[in-house]
Design a protein that fits this description.
By secondary structure, this protein is mainly α. Helices cover 61% and strands 0% of the residues. The protein is elongated and about 65 Å long.
């Protein structure tokens, strides 16, 4: 549909089905999308994160970071909803537009003057963060392909192939269209959940806490590594606004038992389980990705 004039000229009026779904999503569908958006390769680093924080301190800090993250999500959605309510025509502001509008509507003249710059900075940070996620996937896959290539004496340079697919893979992270995003992310999600199941199964089935050392609280100088790993693991913020806007009953997105709160509870439990059992299983030998600790000679 054509762009219409709004009280804020930088906002774009979009159609009813902005994310491409044929019909609004219900509670369960939205919850599944939200969980899939948050669970990424960072979950395999939770064991190493606890190694750098300690078994006692790590889960507490993880909970605090998750609650701060959740609070910021609620603030983002509230700002987005208020923007939509204040406009004379229907709008769906993006993450950056929400930031820009918020500063544009501020009482501070300095913030108003630089509102557009804050919006651009938000987009730059999102682009950089998504690129970082893709690079981690790239390195992770590259390592495993290197082992396979060495085992089977491959002569082809697989890194060239990975470099070619890195750019389109990065672009796919900006899809706000759920209809297009679902098939793109399906394979990655299947592999991700298989990996999570393997790490949990192996670490629980073979757990022996007497063989390796585990710290309850690690040395303070290791905490920056913990925060880096955990903050990287909490991805998915770019999908929050599209998910809320496509709900059949948007009010259930931020309600006490709504999508945001339930999703974060699931993420906290899942990340804690993987981190605790991976660290209990491998101790200080746990790698940056617990998936790499699985024994290769047993078919993992």
């Amino acid at each position: 549909m054509d762009i219409q004039e709004t009280t804020r000229p930088f906002l774009v009026v979009r159609g009813a089905n902005v994310t491409g779904v044929k019909k609004p999503t219900n509670y369960v569908e939205t919850l599944i999308h939200a969980i899939k958006a948050y669970v990424g390769s960072g979950i395999f680093a939770m064991g190493a994160a606890l190694m750098n924080s300690g078994m006692l301190l790590g889960p507490v800090l993880l909970l605090i970071i998750a609650l701060i993250n959740l609070h910021c999500q609620h603030l983002l959605i509230k700002a987005c909803v208020k923007i939509a309510e204040k406009e004379t025509v229907p709008v769906l502001p993006s993450f950056a537009e929400t930031v820009q509008y918020t500063f544009e509507d501020s009482n501070s003249e300095w913030l108003k003057k630089h509102s557009k710059a804050f919006g651009i900075i938000t987009d730059v940070f999102i682009i950089a963060a998504e690129y970082g996620f893709c690079v981690v996937y790239f390195i992770f896959v590259s390592k495993h392909l290197g082992e396979i290539a060495e085992a089977y004496n491959w002569k082809q340079d697989y890194r060239v192939i990975l470099a070619i697919i890195l750019f389109p893979m990065w672009l796919s992270t900006f899809l706000g269209n759920l209809k297009l995003l679902t098939p793109v992310s399906l394979i990655a999600n299947i592999i991700m959940w298989i990996g999570i199941a393997l790490v949990l199964y192996y670490s629980v089935a073979n757990l022996d806490i007497t063989t390796t050392k585990r710290n309850l609280i690690s040395h303070p100088e290791k905490l920056p590594l913990f925060f880096g790993m955990v903050l990287f693991a909490f991805e998915g913020i770019t999908f929050i606004i599209p998910l809320q806007m496509e709900m059949k009953e948007p009010r259930f997105f931020t309600s006490p038992c709504g999508i945001l709160n339930v999703t974060m509870v699931v993420i906290i439990i899942l990340y804690s389980l993987v981190g605790i059992f991976a660290y209990l299983m491998w101790g200080d030998k746990v790698k940056g990705s617990a998936f790499l600790n699985l024994p290769q000679d047993e078919g993992y």
